[in-house]
Each structure stands twice: as C-alpha cells, then as structure tokens.
C-alpha cells in the first residue's frame, strides 16, 4: 500500500458503490415493453404504466392471444444489476393463468430473450395481488416473463423492476483502486490498492 497526495489522483474518493441503495426507483417505467401477441387492447406497455389496477377492462393490463409460450419483455435500455421484479396479477378473472410463468433476466435477445437465465418461477399470485421476486443482482438489460405451455394467455397488470446500473468491469476496477482516504496536515491522502492498479493497467492494454 502506498500513499499518494491528492494532486496525483484523479479518481473520486468514493468507493462505496456496492451497497444497494434504499428506495430504488422502478426502472421499468422508463423501459420499452413488447410482447409476443396483442389481444384486444391488452398492449405490452400497460404493464409499465405505473397503474396497478387489476381489472382488465380498466385498460391497464396486458393480454396476449392464446398461444404456445406467450411472453412479455421490457427493455431497460442499458444493463442493470436487478435486485427485484414485482408482478401484479389480474383481479377480475383468470388469476390462475399466470401460474408457472418464468421471470428471466439477461442481455441476449436470442429467442426473444426467453433463453436468458431464470430469476424465479411464479407458482401463483392471488387475484389482484402484487408479489416481489428477489433476483440477487442478476445482470441484464432485458426482463422477460414467459409462460411455458400450449394455448396459454399471458396477462400482467403491472411489472416493476428495481436494481442498480451495472458498470463495466474496468470501471468497477477503477473504483476499487482507492481503499482509504485520510487527512494529514491539511492534505487528503489516498490509500491505493497496488494489485488492482496493475490489473487495471493490464486490462487497458488488452483493450
Ligand atoms: Ca398497469
């Protein structure tokens, strides 16, 4: 460990980047939603309109046609480490239709994103209720909800996604360089992790 005077370091002294922040905002509200098919006015964006109304004819729930493996997806437009996904089920009818749906998170659009890793499987959600599924910081830009099976309808009245922006491995490494900041004789000194410094230099050379 070496001590460097402030003038030699350009990085921010803050290294506290890994703690989940409380009251994370709902990322889905700024996303772009799509789904396998539209039934009536049950458009994909109804699940990210900020309205939890579970009555389908209230105009705030999605609805696919009856098909094999119907799916819904929200594109968060950049990569996030996803803490949780909350799903609100339909209230006025057919609440069992959601049973068995899978929540998938990842960065691939292969098979419309339905091959991405599974965060959780929905066993059931009582009519009109919202259940939150913990995703343990799974990284992804796309959140899919897919319902395995044939002749299935997928209806979602609201989907909320909470997480923090995923940083590039190089940026993570940069932020991990500075381990400690102390004030000595009126000057700030930074304790730098030399092992991470060499690792960062090597990764920059590779790029
Ligand atoms: Ca809604």
TrEMBL record:
Signal peptide: none annotated. SMART domains: FTP. One of its GO terms (cellular component) is extracellular region. SUPFAM superfamilies: Galactose-binding domain-like. It is found in: Secreted. Its main location: secreted. One of its GO terms (biological process) is regulation of complement activation, lectin pathway. Residues 24-167 form the Fucolectin tachylectin-4 pentraxin-1 domain. Keywords: Calcium, Disulfide bond, Lectin, Metal-binding, Secreted. GO terms for molecular function: fucose binding; metal ion binding. Belongs to the fucolectin family. Acts as a defensive agent. Recognizes blood group fucosylated oligosaccharides including A, B, H and Lewis B-type antigens. Does not recognize Lewis A antigen and has low affinity for monovalent haptens. Homotrimer. This is Fucolectin tachylectin-4 pentraxin-1 domain-containing protein. It comes from Synaphobranchus kaupii.
């Amino acid at each position: 460990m070496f001590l460097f005077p402030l003038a030699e370091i350009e990085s921010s002294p803050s290294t506290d980047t890994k703690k989940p922040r409380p009251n994370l905002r709902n990322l889905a509200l700024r996303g772009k939603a799509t789904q396998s098919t539209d039934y009536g006015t049950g458009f994909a964006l109804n699940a990210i309109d900020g309205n939890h109304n579970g009555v389908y004819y209230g105009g705030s729930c999605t609805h696919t046609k009856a098909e094999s493996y119907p799916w819904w997806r929200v594109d968060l437009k950049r990569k996030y480490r996803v803490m949780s996904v909350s799903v609100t089920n339909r209230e006025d009818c057919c609440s069992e239709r959601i049973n068995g749906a899978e929540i998938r998170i990842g960065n691939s659009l292969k098979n419309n994103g339905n091959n991405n890793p599974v965060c959780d499987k929905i066993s059931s959600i009582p009519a009109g209720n919202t259940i939150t599924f913990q995703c343990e910081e799974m990284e992804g830009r796309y959140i899919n909800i897919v319902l395995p099976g044939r002749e299935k309808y997928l209806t979602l009245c609201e989907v909320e996604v909470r997480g923090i922006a995923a940083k590039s491995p190089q940026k993570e490494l940069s932020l991990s360089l500075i381990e400690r900041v102390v004030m000595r004789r009126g000057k700030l000194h930074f304790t730098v992790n030399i092992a991470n410094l060499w690792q960062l230099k090597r990764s920059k050379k590779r790029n």
